[in-house]
Specification:
Elements (H helix, E strand, L loop, with lengths): L2 H16 L1 H6 L7 E2 L8 H8 L9 H10 L16 H6 L1 E7 L4 E2 L3 E8 L4 E6 L3 E9 L1 E5 L5 E3 L4 E4 L5 E4 L5 E8 L7 E2 L7
Parallel strand pairs: 2-3
Antiparallel strand pairs: 1-3, 2-4, 4-11, 5-10, 5-12, 6-9, 6-11, 7-8, 7-10
Helix pairs in contact: 1-4
Length: 198
């Protein structure tokens, strides 16, 4: 296996061990099963790789490992063909670290990195999987329907219950987040209010 994947797995484990909310959400599989991944590149991947404003003191090693493994990753196109704008598709980036389409296989959780540049709106969406976000670098405003928005920075977490609409906005800073799913791992997210996309 490429050393960049091995380094990322080491940093993923270290981050998980440091953040109680992640440990409470789920355990990481041990041992993990290595599996081949066919790299798939998207334009937004380059934005993450070259973003100079992904500041993070506490999680800099994890951030760097996520960036260094990026050229090997199978970048997702979850919202392709859903009515999402070209601007959204060209600036929203996500790849899987542990799970179904990941270099480290698992059947009971999925772990991703999600990136959004500054000045980006991830519209209201939902999915059956329960989810936790942990900000690795930068900052973003997290919205959960019925709750007050929260601005999260490195080490902060946000929990999204099953099928609860949530959204994310970046303003002056980009965000890189570590995202975990549990429960229904196969149903893709959908936009909660697709009529608002136009």
């Amino acid at each position: 296996m490429d050393l960049r994947w091995e380094t990322l797995l080491t940093e993923t484990r270290a981050t998980h061990a440091r953040v109680p909310a992640l440990q409470e959400f789920c355990a990481l599989p041990e041992p993990v099963v290595e599996q081949p991944v066919t790299p798939h590149h998207i334009p937004a991947a380059d934005l993450m790789i070259h973003d100079p404003n992904l500041h993070s003191n506490a999680f800099a090693d994890f951030r760097d490992a996520l960036i260094n493994a990026a050229p090997l990753a199978q970048w997702r196109e979850t919202y392709k063909g859903t009515g999402a704008s070209a601007d959204f598709l060209n600036r929203f980036a996500c790849y899987e670290i542990i799970g179904i389409d990941a270099p480290f296989g698992a059947t009971d959780i999925r772990a991703f990195v999600v990136y959004q540049p500054a000045g980006f709106h991830y519209p209201w969406h939902h999915h059956p999987a329960e989810e936790i976000y942990m900000v690795v670098a930068g900052e973003a405003e997290f919205h959960l329907e019925g709750e007050n928005p929260q601005t999260l920075r490195p080490g902060d977490t946000a929990f999204h219950p099953s099928n609860a609409p949530h959204a994310l906005i970046t303003r002056d800073h980009p965000v890189m987040a570590y995202v975990l799913w549990r429960g229904d791992l196969n149903t893709k997210p959908v936009f909660t209010y697709p009529e608002d996309l136009s």
